[in-house]
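Note to self: keep these together.
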Amino acid sequence: MSEIVVQIEHANIYQSGSLILQDVNLNVQKGEFVYLVGKTGTGKSSLLKTLYGELTLTEGVGQVVGFNLKEMDWKKLPFLRRNLGVVFQDFQLLSDRNVNENLSFVLKATGWQDEQLIQQKIDDVLNKVGLQNKGFKMTYEMSGGEQQRVDIARAMLNAPKMILADEPTGSLDPETSDEIMQLLFQIAKEDGTAIIMATHDYMVVNKFPARTLKTEGGRLVEKG
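Structure:
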């Protein structure tokens, strides 16, 4: 039996009081890779923010990695986010620390204390993203592709059931984009991590085909 990681039914999604998407229905299963496409301002980011609890779901039904989005509050939010990884277009790494310190900061913030276990976990995720032996590097010394790999490693730290990737190839050259896409598909397949990736890049979508959803006209529609 497949495990459902996201289940949204008849949801209306608001941002700053404005209805952005109406009657959203979405099911995502464990290990599934899903693209989220659509023009800027059509609700892609609002949908992602709803899934990771930054926007409150007030109308409709929503479950993400076992958490009820309508019951989300500041006490429950950290537990939801521990089961999610978020990958940003602009990396959002701490430039005054090296890679190990960036990753250690996240683990300690989510309750890890044992230094030996922290280092083992960091080595594990860096190995998965092809950055073994790069933990000592300062983030500003790295290429865009390497920084994006660190961002993906950070998203994987707490073995999330789902990764939300917001334009992860948006600032990368085509060759580096391909490497990042191969890595994301590998994570979905090998770790069983569901991935929802928002993108404008139809070249990537065509080159690495997967289920595709589109935000248009205030709706979320499945593209054939």
